[in-house]
Amino acid sequence: MSEKSCVKKLTDLVVDSNLRQLVTSEREILTEIIIYIREVDCRKLYLSFGYPSLFEYLTRRMGYSNASAQRRVNVARLSNEVPVVMDHVESGEIKLSQISVMAQAIRQVNRGSDKVSTETKEQLISELVGKSLNQTEVIVSAALNIPLKQHTKAKHQKDESVRFEVTLTKEQWEKFNRARDILSTSLSNGSWDQVIESMSDQVILKKDKATPRLKARTSKITNSQIKKANLNSASDATKASRTAIPKSVQHEVFARDRCCQYQSKITGHKCSSTWNLTLDHVQPIWAGGKNEASNLRVFCANHNIELYRQQAGIRSV
Ligand SMILES: [Zn+2]
Q1: In a domain, 36, yes or no
Q2: Gap from CA of 194 to ligand 1 centroid (Å)
Q3: Residue 317 belongs to a domain
Q4: C-alpha 305 to ligand 1 mean position (Å)
Q5: How far lies 260's CA from each of 50, 242, 243, 301, 303, in Å?
Q6: Residue segments in the chain with a per-residue pLDDT below the cut of 70
Q7: pLDDT score, position 270
Q8: How far is the CA of 229 from the centre of ligand 1 (A)?
Q9: Domain assignment of residue 158, yes or no
Q10: Which pTM was predicted?
Q11: Ligand 1 center to residue 21 CA distance, Å?
């Protein structure tokens, strides 16, 4: 490229000046990207494009690495509540990695009974300006009164093995050791990889034996559809047939589909998620659809709701 060879001829001062301009442009573009990601999230556009989540949309459609996608999701969502964060990102005063530390800590707190208020988030953001990642961890940990957990790391190696690093709380570690003791009689040496494999085998075996926990479309959704179709008199009969999907039929559909069958009409992309699966009626029960395998398909919960929105003419908000 001529552009690259040109750089060789520039003076040191010009190289430095051009680079500073490019870095500024990079941050401006990043801010614009975050605004677009926020809009995709707000519209739940990823669902109609065939992806089960914003994160999957950014990694699989936009080509971001897992870490880069998660950082952008964190900033986009935080900026909805604390808009000033965008100014700090554009000026370079706060890095995306700092926001990720803060977002992870907030999720940690919110999983308990407490919730982090908007005021606390605003205060934290103002304290993170110009700080390093290490300083950020100390500030966030002190402000939210929690020990910060290290990120779980999964590194795929050349021989297709995976190096997995996870931080456990004291209670989780004790529980894990107890499970290891219980399994020790059936394992040859009790190494951690054997323990994890054995626990996984047992969960998979239990799952395969049990009826798949597939949920029919929620009663709230179906009742709304029934109201919309003005079929009040059929309501009781519809409820009865909705809840009576035979277990053998559930098994058959799950064994056949295995993953979310939602396919975007816009991109042609098939979701294929295996997370939080539900059963969906191709022809809704209120419209005469039956609880038969040929009229059922596996959808992830998000696409089940998305399809309802599409059918009911409700725009995602
Ligand atoms: Zn899906």
Answers
A1: yes
A2: 32
A3: no
A4: 10
A5: 10, 20, 21, 9, 8
A6: 1-5, 148-152, 208-243, 314-317
A7: 96
A8: 26
A9: no
A10: 0.71
A11: 42
